[in-house]
Each structure stands twice: as structure tokens, then as C-alpha cells.
Amino acid sequence: MNALPDRRLNAFRPDLAEEALRGTVPAAHYVTGTPAFVGQSVAALRPRPDAAAGIDTELLFGEGVRVLDWAEGWAWVKSDFDGYVGYLPETALEAGAPAATHVVAVPRTFAYSGPDLRTPAAFTLSIGSRITVVGQSETRGTRYLTLVGGQSVVSGHCLAIGQKAGDDYVAVAARFLETPYLWGGRSGFGLDCSALVQLSMMMTGRTAPRDSDMQAAGLGTPIERAALRRGDLVFWKGHVAIMEDEATILHANGHTMSVAREGLDAAIERIGWLYEQPTGYRRP
Questions:
Q1: What is the predicted pLDDT for the residue at 274?
Q2: How far apart are the first and last CA of the chain?
Q3: What is this structure's pTM?
């Protein structure tokens, strides 16, 4: 019997599956889904429609999804960005296709109720959030972008869609230092090891799978430890770190419960007590 596809990247249940899986997995019905986008700061994506279920990953404000099913206050969705499948509360979504013009390019920022930093913050935004800008203004020397909902974001915290935050994704990763570790987190408010890789690469125009096992299986090419340099990746079972230089890593980790800088040799010795030696090294 053939193994079923990875449920994280393939939407299927006995009653329903995405159209792309017709002929691959059995289901009573197949659907293409309807477009929607995330309408809150960060939305937790879960493996089942249960608020007590652990978080698989998170979707960010303005990111698009295809909704495959709505039921009992939950939406079963597939992310447009990385293909991840799971359940979101219906209240996290807005109908229709997103029409973003800009992306947030700093780890965290605010959407203010007006074009002035002294006005109340309406909501928060993470790096990678996609926003729709309809105007610009300036108050006391600070430029603001006006969002479609009427709120304002500091212009210097954003980039136009298609622009990159440079070419060095390691420099982007370093901006997350001391950000809290969050299992399944994928935002500037809290993130896990593989999200640090994915978000940092995204902001420099590169793509990476969501989870560390996916990254270890196919992101870039394998290399030997002796060849490690800035930007390479070190993998353990269930963990990934970014080489900042030939001897130092950046990683979101459960030891410091934050994004931290650590010597590679010290990390290998410390992690080895629980998770053995690195499983591989890759150059993305």
C-alpha cells in the first residue's frame, strides 16, 4: 500500500481533499478552494479544529490562503505562501484575494489609528505581514503609509512588494536576536528554529520550506562540516541553526527560549546530550 502524502503540505480527509490530489488519495469530494486572506496580526494554524491542539505554524496578516472547508467556526485552509495545511478560526480570515502593495520589513511594528506615533496603536504587525497601502502622509518629519482600513504604518518599516531587505539573509536573522522562542511560531513576536530560516530568507527574496525536516531534506545542497561558512545551515534531529561565521551560529532554541548567538562547538556539545550529533550540513 502506498504511503499517504505529507499531511502538512497536502489537504486530504476521508470526506474531502484538494483537487490536486484527485487520483492520489481517496476522498468523497475534491475541491479547489476559495481565496481568503489573514485579517489579524498573527493566526495560529493547527492540525485539527481544536483550540487546545498544538500549533503547527502561523500565518501573518495579509497572507493568502485557499479555504477548502468551513465548519463550526473553523476554516480548513492551505497557505498560498508555503503550502502548509491546517485549521484557522473563521474569525482570522477575510474573504477574497489579497491585494497587498507592501510588506513589513522590521521584526515588529504598529498600525496606528492615525498618521502620528502619538495616536493609539490599532494592532501590531510582524515582519513579513502584507499590507495594502492607499495613501501617504507626513507628521513632524515621520512619513506614514495609510492602509486600506484607515490605519497608518511608519513608511520606513515597510518595503514595496517585490523589494528585498538586502541579499544577506543572515543579517536579517540577526535582527531577531532575543526574540522569544515559540514552538510553531512564525513571527517577529515569537518563532521557532525553522521559522527563523524561512522568514529571514523570505525577506531577501529566497524561499525555504517551513519545517526543519523539510529544510534538511531539500534546501540547498549537502556540504561537509569543514566547509561551513556564513549562511550555511546545521541540522540536528528536529532543529536547525544558521552559521553567522565559521564558528558561530544563530538559532531560535528552547535552551535560552529565544533567538540567540552561540558557538557551534559549544552548541554541538550541549545539544548532543539530548539530541545526539548534527545530522547534516547544507548550503542554501
A1: 82
A2: 34
A3: 0.96
